[in-house]
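Moderator note: this is an archived Q&A kept for reference. The question asked for a predicted structure of one protein chain; the sequence and the answer are reproduced below.
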Amino acid sequence: MGFRKTGLLLLAIAMILPWLWLPGMANSGNIIALFSQYLGMTALIAMALSQLIATRWAGVERVFGPLDQSYRLHKWMGLWALAATFLHDTIDADIEGGPRRTALGEIAETAGEVGLNGMLILVLITVATFIPYHLWKWTHRFIGVFFVLSAFHYLFIERPFSNAHPLGLYMGLVCLLGLIAYAYTSAPRRFRPSRRYTVEQLDKQGDALAVTLAPQGKPLRHRAGQFAFISFADLGMGEPHPFTLSSAPADDGRIRMSIGPLGDYTIRLMSRLEVGANARVEGPFGDFALARGAQTWVAAGIGITPFAAMAQSLKPDDGPVTLFYSVKERSKAAHLEELEAVAAGNPNFDLIVRETSSEGRLDAKVITDKVGGFKGKHLLYCGPATLRDALWDGLRNHGLSARRFHYELFEIRTGVGLDKLFDYLVNRYKTSQKLKIG
């Protein structure tokens, strides 16, 4: 699963459109300046579409792809906006013989500088994933402010065309789209579409906690394998976080989320949750749904959650499906009993539990020894990225194509390798300090 072609096509068209008008404005003395201004326009376009993805409106996934992939595009558009803005600021954008700079133009110039510097800081915080999540989340809300400054810079800076020119109107619509999206994401969450739920039941599932939620009104309608953003404001956990819905769609609208102790947020949430607590649910999102035909599922740890829902949704004519469930110990395996019950009642569903503490790590050989080659088959994976990459290295040699290797990227915030550089520098510093002491 990846970006949708429609989203990439929309992005390409949006970036190319200014060239419908720019060549007619060029002469021997201002080609470089026009190119600089074009870079600035592409930065605005990227920022506006990035703001659009952040709204999580219903049409976003249909255009750009599943939300986990859309957020990757959101990140790369932010990086492009930063690079294009930097180049625009570096390359002289003044048009020879153009209009003289006014007082408003001077203010717009300053706004552009502030927007550039702010973008630089916030994008670096975003991709430097070693910076704590809560700090990133707090600072990231200001990225829209810098878009506003950049839009003001564009609208009132000196240009070879007016805001009433077709190119000016087009870019004005781009700015308006970004401003509307920013206003929406900045508004109180009560104004966003969501469902109200109540915690009805808490079940300990190994190291995980299964939370059953009952609707207070109109329930969420989802497909097995999807996720939702869920918040618990009454418990002081009002920031929505993505959780896979670990139960199949139910007629009564009840849903279930399964939480593993994977970080500070989930550990605190597990300790605070209680029956009767109110929840706000936004979604559903994602496209990790049941495919047809022969397929293999691979889950590790709390990555079992989408497969628990999908196993419940299996019909007698689905599959055959083989689920490899990698756990450290069986006693810590979430939803194991219900998966064993599904396997006992459905001959097309085969459950294989890999207890790594005694059997060793799950690898490509273990999987291929059981299912054979992967020509024409799908493999769906949910678990740590390290295991995913290791399995891909082995399974692609057994006929598994990238198009049939499905997984979700639940890291809404992803880096570009700066965390590895940070770890390297820290380790070098620690080593140098030890040498000094020695």
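Archived answer notes: The CA atoms of residues 229 and 242 lie 4 Å apart.
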